[in-house]
Structure formats: structure tokens, C-alpha cells
Amino acid sequence: MDWLTTVDHKKIAILYLVAGGLFFGIGGIEALLIRVQLAKPMNDFVSAQQFNELITMHGTTMIFLGVMPVIFALMNAVIPLQIGARDVAFPFLNALGFWTFLFGGLLLNLSWLMGGAPDAGWTSYTPLSSTTYSLTHGVDFYTIGLQIAGLGTLIGGINFLATIITMRAPGMSFMRMPMFTWTTFVTSAMILFAFPAITVGLVLLTFDRILGANFFNVESGGNPVLWQHIFWIFGHPEVYILILPAFGVISEVVSTFSRKRLFGYSSMVFATILIAFLGFMVWAHHMFTTGMGPVANALFSIATMLIAVPTGIKIFNWLFTMWGGQIRFTTANLFASGFIPTFVMGGVTGVMLASAPADYQYHDTYFVVAHFHYVIVGGLVLGLFAGLHYWWPKMFGRVLNEKLGKWEFWTFIIGFHMTFFVQHFLGLLGMQRRVFTYLPNQGFDLLNLISTIGAFLMGVGVILFLVNIAITARQPKGVPGDVWEDGRTLEWSIASPPEEYNFKQIPLVRGIDAFWKEKMAGNKEMTPAEPVGPIHMPSPTILPFIMSVGLFIAGLGFMFANDDFGNGAMNFLFNNYIVVGLGLAITFLSMLLRSLFDDHGWHIEPDELNGKEVKA
Amino acid sequence: MMKPWKAVKRLVPLFAMLALLLSACGREDLSVLRPQGPVAEGQLGLIKLSITIMIVVMLIVFGIAAYVWIKYRRKPGQNDIPKQVEGNHKLEIIWTAIPLVLVLILAVATVQKVFAFGEDYSKDANAVKVKVTSHLFWWEFTYPDYGITTAQDMIIPTGKKIALELKTADVLHSFWVPSLGGKTDTNTDGTINKAWLEATNEGVYLGKCAELCGKSHAFMEFKVKAVSPESFDRWVEAMKAPVQTIQDPAVAEVFKTQCLSCHAIGDQGGPLGPNLTGIGSRETVASILHNAEASGKPIDGKPVKDNLVEWLTDPQKVKPGNKMPNPKEDLGLTDAEIEAIADYLANSKLSY
């Protein structure tokens, strides 16, 4: 029960990790089924319809429900600690964000059991995603599930913005923030601007499908290309929302395990902001073949190529952070080191794709599939593995097994390159993406087989990681706070895992890499910025959970509002929007409760702080 | 602990093997890497330029990375604190400026080609105009200057610019002939696209739908058949020539009422399904059953008549999700009628 009501950022981090891990697993299984189907030409392991559902759900699940929550897990676990805060700015919202994400994700995945998953691709281009061509409720699960899950992301983004702006410890100016905090900050700002676009797009598509609106219906004056613009105005910033936190993780890990401060910190900050800014200027490079005309294509080509410059700055800064350092190849640093060349490969194909006329050839082929898996898996997922191995002791008080970690790394990265390197060539040889099978004798057979074998090797890597978690969980807790010995930022100055209130006294920050600076000055701990006093804590509450359940019910009710159940009572409940009303009533009543009854939280008194255990 | 150079050692044979494997660069009629016309050549030129620049960038990054990983490993007992370097303005300016220059080189080449390939030849008297209409899951090609319509095989003369006008009849598709040029989406009315391509040599080139369009997206293939200008003129004449009808009056009646309500052959029939004129000399039946009599690209198939019988017996089995009614179950055709119609269509050939 404790887990349902918690508002503690450290526990919410673990919830995000577990839920994200679960969805990541589902997405991974979908990926393996896709690869089995494509292992040989004219295979009939799955049907064409099942294949389209698999690719749609693989993409949607991985992006929205797999990697985003794991990113949020790391942010939640680390950000308040890194900035010397006791929690996030809005602990209630934090819990609400998690539960809406979870129920949105569950709703989306329910589609497998309730008449078929969405089948129009994760991009859900109209008219294919309209009711004329996608007959099941699949796409409704997509629009409404993502809408609810997207709420969670938006809430999370706003929360981190407020947290980072208002809750930094005394002395931590913006230009003294750790790099991961910076990238989280910029990412949250991007979420704030990008997610409303998809929210609007999903509303339009939902209305088209359920209420018979005509936003994308050509016969009634709508325009399918409009959907592409709306989707990518969100969709392109979204990939930077994914990769920027990974950049932050790599910056932390590389610097810690080289025992050096981050090279070119201010240019790193500048590059991050520039990438975010340019990220909003390039959405139409996903649409070069849509027919926007040469002027638009040329402009979006150039804007896209420019992103290579700040990204290059980052790469070289990492390399020169290591230059002259003392590098330790822990598992975390292995993943970070693997990230650099792999991400560079994804980046250079990105520049190649930016050239519009060349993109006419790459577009919607396996070349593109290879490219975005290089940046998302080779970039983001390697970054997440690095971050998880790095902060695991801080989250759970136990160090993941290093020996097994090395095995994870090597199986995963070799499997990864096997899977996706060959796909560049598949695309150039003429294989388009999202095909459920292909004819023999086109030169695709061997490369596809290699790719499938590689995918299973990646699967082995992920299983080893799970085994590692299981083994580690049996170890006794209790690692030192500064478990890697070279910790530089504030989270390493407190216990692993930290007490509920994080910092007994808020620390005084005297420079960049605050904890390292104190250590170099010969101090064992941070200098406190306040005397020991009572600590205000937020109360646990079940309301966020109940509000999300309400949204879940309302979503299901709306989706089936026009269905004939062959049962009078059910028809009455659904067709009159009674189920929708019930769900919304639950949510709004909870909001009302929250508004009418002020909860001032509770305090931990100083004498309790000196005791061993502090329990809520 | 696994040393980084061991990883390199492991990957080198893998990549070497791949390099060998790929030296063939794929099929001449399908691969982006073996262009057969000016558009695809120009695009490959850009690909080559960008990959050359990018390989240089990668080598520099990988080189520095390998160097620091080997040189700056922490040695046992090494306990001094490394110098905490804040940054280096000169270096930072270098790695900002050089990529900027590289990107500009690529940008100039890109802009040139964007406008070259965006040229509209639809008013050019020397160009052959073709209206491409995509359907679930087949392609229709109309030649407005000649008043003819065909499906699945687009016949074009070599050495001439082909001015395409592309649209869809249902969901979005994308027209792609890798060896002749990149793709253009076929949009709905209101956002109709134009594009052009040209084939230097005679031959059959494989075309594909590149935008997810439903169940049989994978099977929505087509062929572009480039022939000499003289042969093209003969084809146009043959397409316009009157079509022989079915001998057996009973079968002719079934064909007329059941098939020609959607399909057209010669000057008869409707426009909903693929035009059947000269279907006996096409590359495929329904784009996926390859005909033994044709070029055998990419695979040899069964005789055209067998393919027609297979298709007419159960279209959904061949191409899931297609719009054709089942001739037996929905239209009530008998096996004998299917046989007779297949025989008739198989012999509906064009010589050009």
C-alpha cells in the first residue's frame, strides 16, 4: 500500500523504473517477434495484420512507455539529490504523473486483449489511421492511451522545471548545476513545448474517429498532411527529449570515471540549449517526400545539418574530458564509452539523412530504421544502462555485479551492431521499412538473418541485466555514500540509499562539482547551509492513483461510446456516455477533495533526526 | 576486465566479412547504389559526398577515442589527482568551425540538387507525362497525352524525361524505384505531387510502395519497364488497338457482368480495378505472382495462366487485405469459368 500512496521522489523513481522496465520488456518481445518474422523471405510466422500491430506497438511502447519512464526514473532518483533538495517542487504532481503514465500505458496495451492493437504505425498517419481503413479499436487505444500517458509526461516535465528553478541549494547557480541537471532542465522545457502539439493532434484524431469530425478527412475539406505536421512538430523534439538526458548521464559518468571535471562545461550547456532550440526547427525533415516543395526542403535540410555542430561539440568535449584523466572501466563507464562511437555513427547517418535529395532514397527504408535505432538504442539505451549501473547503488544501496555487467555490455553492444549495422545496407539495397515479408533473390536474405541473430544477442544482454538485478537484490544493503570513490556531485555526499528527507541540512554549494570541491579541500562532508531544524515532509496520498483510475475508466468509456454490445444495459451505459461521466466524476471529485482539504504535511523533528531510523 | 582493443579485434572480422559481402552493392534493377538514370545518379552522388565527409569525421572521433581509452586508463596504485581542465578555447573553436564548414559543403550540394530534382517537366513538350494513382494495393499509370491507362507495369521510353503526377485513391502510399530515383509520396487530392525520372538504359526496374498502407504494403510492388522510344510507340499503338473478346458467349457474359464492372480491358469496362489490357505480357499478376514468361525479376515464377488461376481462386490468400471480391464465393464463378477467363487474360498480350 505504501507504494500506492507514496509521494517520495525516490520511491516514485523506483515505480517508474519497474513500470518502464515492464513495458520495455513487452516492447523487446515485440521486437524479437518482428525479427523472427523477417529472418527469412516469405515467412509466415505472423500474419500481415499481426505484423502491422507488432511494429506499431513496438515503436509506441518503446518510445512512450519504455524509455521515457526509465528516463523519468533516473531524473526522479537523481535530480533532487543533485541540486541539494529534499524532494521535487510538487510531490503530489509527481505521483500523479507516474500514475497517469502507468494507466495510459496499461490502456494502450489492453488493446492486445480487446480486439486488436493499433496497426497504423507509431506515426499513425491518416487516412490509414481513420475509421475507414483501420477498423478495430486499435487506433482508439493509441490515441486515448497516449493522451493519458502524455499527461503524465507533461506533468513530470513541469514539475522538474519548477524543481530545478526554485529548489537548488544555496550557492548552486545555474552555471554550477551538474550536467545531468542541465539536460533534465532543458528536456523538461522541451516537453513543455512539444507535448501540447501531440495532445492537440491526438484530440483531433480521436474526434475524427469517435465523434465523426473531419479534421483529416479529404472529402470534407480536411487534410492528412496536417496530421504529419502536427505529429512531427511533437515527434522531432521528442527524440531530443529522449537523447538529451542520455547526454547528461554520459557527461556525469565519463567525468566521474576519468576523475576529471567535464571539459568545456559552458560550451556543453550552450550546445544543449542550441540542440533543443534547433530541435523545434527541423520537424519537416521527416516529410521530405511529402512534397513540400524545393524551398521548404532546402531550408529544413540546412537547419537539420546545423544540429551536427552542437552535437559534435558534445562528442569532443567528452573525449577531452577523458584526455589526461585516469579512466576506470566500470560497467557504467563501459556503457558510456560504448555510447560515444555508437552515437557518432547514428549522428553521421543523421547528417546524411538531412540532405533532402539523398533522403528521397533513404526515406522509409531500413536505412532510416538503422539510423534511429543507432541514436535511440545505441545512444539513449546505452546511456540509460550507464546511468542505471552508475546510480543503482544510490537508488538501492547495492552495487550491481561488475563481472556480470561486463557480460551484459559486450553481448548487448555486439548484438546491437549486428542487428542494426547491416540494416543500413538493407535500405540502400532497396528494402523499404514496415514490410511484413519480402521476396527472395533481392539480396536481402543474409543481411536479415544476421540482423535477427543480433537481435537475440541483444535479448541475451537484457536478460543478463535482469539476472544481475536478481543476484544483486540478494546482497546485503549498505554501501558507502560515495560508492565510486570519485563522486563529484551532491548525491554522492549522502547515504546510499538516502534517508527519506535526503539532506539533514541543506548543503552549501561552493562551486561546480560541489562534493568534489569539498573533498579536494579535505572535507569529508558538505558544509551545511542551515542549522539542524525540523524538516517539512509531504503526506502520502492515494488521490493521484484514484484520479488516474478515473481517467482510465473515462478513456475506455469514450472509446466504446459508439459500440453495440448486443446487451441493453451495456449499450445504455456506454452509448449515453455514462461510463465516461463516471470516470471523469471520479477524477474531478478527487481533484475537489485535494482542493478543499488542505494537507500541510508533517515534520520530522531534529531529535528524531539524530535517531537511527526515521519512519513515516 | 575486457579490454577495449579486444572489442575491436572482435568487430574487425565481422565488418570485413560484411564489406566483402556488400561489394556486390545489390541488384542492378533495385539498388540505390547502382543507379540507372540521372536522378538516381545525382542522389547517389550526394550519398557518396556525405558518406565521405562522415567517414573522415568518424575516423577522427574513433581515433581520438581509442587513443584516450588506451593511453589514459587508470593504472594500479595511481592515486594522484589528474589536472582538472576547465576547457580550451582554441580547441573548442576548432571543433565548432570545422564541422560548420563540412556541413556547409554538404548544404551547397544539397540545395543544388533539391532544386534540380524539384524541377517541373509537366509542361515540357519532350517529356512523357504519366499520372500515377496508387490504390490499395496496386498502381495505376495513365498517359494523358496518349489516352491510355495501364496498371502494375509502367512502360517508359529510355532517354526521355518522364514527368510524373502522383496521387492516391485511398490511403497514402509512396512511389519508389530505387535504381531510377528516390520516392515521392502519393497524397490525397489537394496535395498532389509532381516528380520526374529518366532511365538511361532499357530494362525492367523494381518499384515499391514505401509508405505503410495496410496489410499488403509489402506486396504493393510494381515494375518500371524502360524500352526504346520506337518500342514505346509500338506499345502505345498496341494499347489502343481493339481487344479480342472471349469466344464462349456464356463466359464472355460472366466476364462482362462480373469482371468488367470494376476492371477495364481495351475500351470496355470500369475504372475501379486495375486495367487488364495486355495483362498476359506483364511482369506479374497482382504485383506479387511473377510470370515465367517475363523478365524473371526478381524471381522466376509460374506461367501467367497458372498465376491468374491462383489469384482468381483466392485473392485474399495471395494478397491479404486487397479490395477484390472473391470470384468464387462473392461473384459465384465456377472453376471452369475461372479457367476460361484466366486462359483469355493470359493470351491478352501486346507485342511492342
Automatic annotation (TrEMBL), chain B:
Keyword Thylakoid: no
EC code: 7.1.1.9
Catalyses which reaction(s): 4 Fe(II)-[cytochrome c] + O2 + 8 H(+)(in) = 4 Fe(III)-[cytochrome c] + 2 H2O + 4 H(+)(out)
GO biological process: ATP synthesis coupled electron transport
Residue ranges occupied by any Cytochrome oxidase subunit II copper A binding domain in the UniProt entry: 125-238
Intracellular or extracellular location(s): Cell membrane; Membrane
Enzyme class name: translocase
Record membrane topology: Multi-pass membrane protein
One GO location term (cellular component): plasma membrane
Matching CDD domains: CuRO_CcO_Caa3_II
An example molecular function term from Gene Ontology annotations: oxidoreductase activity
SUPFAM superfamilies for the chain: Cupredoxins, Cytochrome c, Cytochrome c oxidase subunit II-like, transmembrane region
Domain Cytochrome c: residue ranges: 246-349
Coiled-coil parts of chain: none
Pfam family, one: Cytochrom_C
Transmembrane portions of the chain: 51-70, 91-111
Cofactor field: Cu cation
Domain of life: Bacteria
Annotated keywords: Copper, Electron transport, Heme, Iron, Membrane, Metal-binding, Respiratory chain, Translocase, Transmembrane, Transmembrane helix, Transport
Family, similarity comment: Belongs to the cytochrome c oxidase subunit 2 family.
Protein name: Cytochrome c oxidase subunit 2
Protein species of origin: Paenibacillus barengoltzii G22
